[in-house]
Design brief:
CATH architecture of the largest domain in chain B: Beta Barrel
Largest interface: A-B, 52 and 54 residues
InterPro entries (chain B): TAT_signal
Largest sheet of chain A: 5 strands, antiparallel
Organism (chain B): Asanoa iriomotensis
Number of helices of chain A: 12
Largest sheet of chain B: 5 strands, mixed, barrel
Shape of chain B: globular
Protein name (chain B): Cell wall protein
Number of domains of chain A: 2
Number of helices of chain B: 2
CATH class of the largest domain in chain B: Mainly Beta
Shape of chain A: elongated
Order of helices and strands of chain A: HHHHHHHHHHHHEEEEE
CATH superfamily of the largest domain in chain B: Nucleic acid-binding proteins
Distance between the termini of chain B: 46 Å
Oligomer: heterodimer
Order of helices and strands of chain B: HHEEEEEEEEEEEE
Helix content of chain B: 10-25%
Radius of gyration of chain B: 21 Å
Structural class of chain B: mainly beta
Number of strands of chain B: 12
Strand content of chain B: over 45%
């Protein structure tokens, strides 16, 4: 069992290394990514891209050697050196240039965070196990295909989950799906006050008495199919309350009614 | 029946009863000369609007608010029976607290006091992007600052594409631009949402 686990770390580390190399060597965005990465701090602005390409070449070479036969201890040792180097680089980048992208696997700009470091840390014991293993992964995989493939898939999934560069492929759609299912923003039911005020402001009566109104909404309440909205107003030099009756559910600005009432005297001054 | 209910009954009857219908001329002359007869507001170009005040409330006493403006100017604001007070929703003077921010509009009295027609307490108007969505909360990215905006069920409204407001906010999407009117929770980065304007 332990032999199988150890043997299967070689393809895991190999796949991750080739994936990283593919981006560093062949992507159109590699140059920009190199300039954004913390490598510029480490080796200087001008040498960042050659260093980046060189690293990609080494990754491709070691990754391919890990996956292809024969099984050599040297491959695992080289991979361990590389993964330990990456871990050190990431910790350095986190301290020296916290805003810089790690530039590890894709052009997506994601500052070095705990997840990238965890992914890098995961690859160190994996490459150590690969160096320790003496059997080829293909022999172990043909001996126990289901368990082997399951383990490899689980490990690859873990690497994907620890890669902020790949979030837009699976995490964001998953979150969107969750929002679509749970509707966390459904809010309340009923007719918001603003809807009644909008209706009121589009009504014919508001155009006629609007210039008498001096305040914003003072109070409102619902009465059967009507919503009452009160404003302060001035009418013929005396203070008054403008009370509007707005249809609560229907949108019929023309049926809005208004009364100007002198509160103190209790007298209705105007109704429209 | 409480006085408040009595008053509401009076007002409802006045508007729905339909008694004493008065024609348009009750609202004054329809002639254009009437419009020019009104006194012009004596505001100098570029000068601050004398009928507006804003600031943090430092003292509340007997219908008067003392507020320190963002430019350091002290404003004295008189609240009357006819003053509307907004604090996420239309409310009353006793809901105003020391430390609240406020905008006030009214008429400047000769002694410099602003007799307020309307006061908006803690009102904010933000242009932001939705960074994340939670259970009845929006996390907004406002010029690089994170703001937590709470949806208040029954109060918060959304206006999509300038159509009439609805209470359903579920069409808001992460990454979209929104304009939010709301009430600030003093000394925090949190607000309660009154209205969200968005494209949908």
């Amino acid at each position: 069992m332990v032999g199988m686990i150890a043997a299967l770390q070689a393809p895991l580390v190999g796949i991750v290394l080739i994936w990283a190399a593919r981006f560093k060597l062949f992507s159109r965005h590699a140059e920009a990514s190199a300039r954004r990465s913390a490598l510029t701090r480490l080796v200087g602005e001008n040498r960042a891209l050659p260093a980046y390409r060189l690293l990609g070449g080494a990754e491709l070479l070691i990754g391919a050697a890990l996956i292809l036969p024969p099984v050599l201890r040297l491959e695992g040792v080289a991979a361990t050196t590389l993964t330990v180097g990456f871990l050190g680089y990431l910790i350095y980048a986190k301290r020296a240039a916290p805003d810089a992208s790690c530039g590890c696997l894709s052009a997506a700009t994601a500052p070095v965070a705990g997840r990238s470091i965890a992914r890098s840390a995961l690859l160190v014991p994996a490459s150590l196990l690969a160096a320790w293993s003496a059997t080829g992964w293909w022999t172990e995989l043909t001996a126990r295909p289901v368990a082997g493939a399951g383990l490899l898939m689980a490990e690859l999934a873990l690497v994907v989950m620890l890669s902020p560069e790949l979030d837009h492929r699976w995490l964001l759609p998953l979150r969107q799906l969750w929002v679509n299912v749970t509707h966390p923003l459904r809010g309340g039911s009923g007719v918001p006050l603003l809807r009644s005020v909008q209706q009121l402001q589009q009504s014919r009566v508001f155009r006629r008495v609007g210039n008498l109104i001096s305040s914003d909404v003072r109070e409102h309440w619902d009465e059967d199919e009507w919503r009452m909205i009160c404003y302060s107003a001035r009418y013929q030099g005396r203070p008054a309350t403008a009370v509007f009756a707005v249809p609560l559910r229907a949108y019929e600005p023309d049926s809005v009614r208004v009364a100007l009432v002198d509160d103190r005297a209790g007298a209705t001054l105007v109704t429209l | 029946m409480t006085p408040k209910m009595d008053r509401r009954r009076l007002l409802s009857t006045a508007v729905l009863g339909g008694a004493g219908l008065v024609g348009a001329t009750a609202l004054g002359s329809l002639a254009p000369e009437a419009a020019f007869a009104a006194e012009a507001q004596p505001v100098e170009p570029g000068a601050p609007d004398p009928n507006f005040a804003e600031g943090r409330i430092s003292k509340i006493s007997a219908g008067t608010l003392l507020a320190t403006g963002s430019d350091g100017v002290l404003h004295s604001i008189r609240v009357t029976d006819g003053t509307s007070i907004w604090k996420l929703y239309p409310t009353t003077f006793d809901q105003v607290a020391v430390g609240d921010g406020m905008y006030a509009r009214g008429v400047r009295l000769p002694d410099g006091t602003l007799a307020a027609d309307s006061i908006w307490v803690n009102i904010v108007n933000l242009h932001a992007h939705i960074a994340a969505v939670g259970r009845n909360t929006l996390h907004l990215d406002h010029k690089g600052q994170r703001i937590v905006a709470h949806v208040v069920p029954g109060l918060s409204a959304a206006v999509y594409n300038s159509t009439p407001a609805v209470s359903d906010l579920s069409l808001l999407k992460v990454g979209r631009h929104v304009q939010v009117l709301g009430a600030w929770h003093p000394d925090t980065n949190e607000i309660s949402i009154a209205t969200v304007y968005a494209a949908a």
